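From the shared-data thread, chain only:
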Amino acid sequence: MSDGIRLAVTTLTVLPLRAGRVDRSTAAVAMAVAPVVGAVLGLVLAGLHVALRAAGSPDLVAAGLTVAAGALLTRGLHLDGLADTVDALGSYRSGPAALEIMKKPDIGPFGVAALAVTVLIQAAALTEAGPWAIVTAWAAGRLAITVACRRGVPPARPDGLGALVASTVPRWAVTAGAAFVVVPALAAVPGRPWQGPAAVVLSLSAVVLLLRHAVRRFGGITGDVLGAVVELAVTLTLVAVTLA
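Structure, as tokens:
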């Protein structure tokens, strides 16, 4: 259990914890507790956002700095995964040819556009989001990883992060992770306790569709696909909780 938690923290954040045992059993724990790591990240970012607003920062500046901090705390890996995944999907290639595009170090036009749009939407939504909405969005983003690593979703390659974590999470752990995220979601929109959970359901529905497409086009999931589902879930959750 402790090795799995350390793996979750070192994989999903910049915290330099001492590495423990790394195998599929620890990966199962790491991917199952990903929503908890996301909630902690969300609390840190919510605190930063509130502090910036209290210090007199303009709404958009506070939102932009919060998004930037979120990228820094995760080494930008999820954004990088989003760009690589969109580039591969935008190429209209499948199988090994698409996976080869994902491995290239440069970012193509589809990836650049995806990054710009995602960061812009997240920052715009944060101008209207309260603290619990931020916690909910970041927890939902990591719940997307739990969903992506559930049993039955294959890896696209025989090696790499995708091969380590794919199909490791039992379905009961997915349910437990969803129940955990519902707690902050109930407080995400003051006066409308249903809207936060509905936002999470919406984001995860989109994640499932993306995963099905990734399996069809790539043969399974990769580390880049995991990054893409994180950013998709965070963005859609933020949009949904800020709808009037």
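The two ends are 41 Å apart (CA to CA).
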